[in-house]
Amino acid sequence: MMLSAHFSLAEFTASDTALRKGIDNSLPGGLVPAAQTTARMMEAIRAALGGLPITLTSGYRSPALNAAIGSGPTSDHPRAQAVDFKCPAFGTPYEVAKHLATKLDSLGIGQLIHEYGTWVHVSTRPASKIVNRVITISAAGTQVGIQRV
Questions:
Q1: Distance (Å, whole) CA 133 – CA 131
Q2: Is there a domain that residue 40 lies in?
Q3: What is the domain-level CATH number for residue 71?
Q4: Is the pTM of this model over 0.90?
C-alpha cells in the first residue's frame, strides 16, 4: 500500500529492531489517516529538497517497539506523526535540517530535530513549546536550533 506517491506503508513501518526482537510493528487501521498526513508532509519535504530520494530510517513505531528502542512516551512515532530520514543526495543531515528550518510552516512540519548528526526527525504534531520546535540532539544534550554536532 502506498501512503503517498513516493512513500509506502512497508517503508513507514519497517524496523530491523522489530524483526530482530519479534515485535509486531503493523500500523493499526485507525492510524492510517495520520500516516497519510505524515506522508504528505514527507512529499512536501521531498519537493523542498529538489525531488531527491529520501530514505526513511524510522516512521511508525508500535508502543512495544518504541519502548524497546528506549524512546519516551511522548514520541510522535507511535501516533504515526513522525519520521526519521536521510537525503544523502541533498547533503548531510545537518544541511538538510538547516534547509528545512526556514520552511516549517509551508511544509507542515510541527517539529524538526537534527539528531546526533545522523538523521533528521520531523513530525506533523505542533511542538507543545515553541522552544522545542527546532532543536539539535547530540551526545552533549539538547540545543535550540540546528547546530553542527
A1: 6
A2: yes
A3: 3.30.1380.10
A4: yes
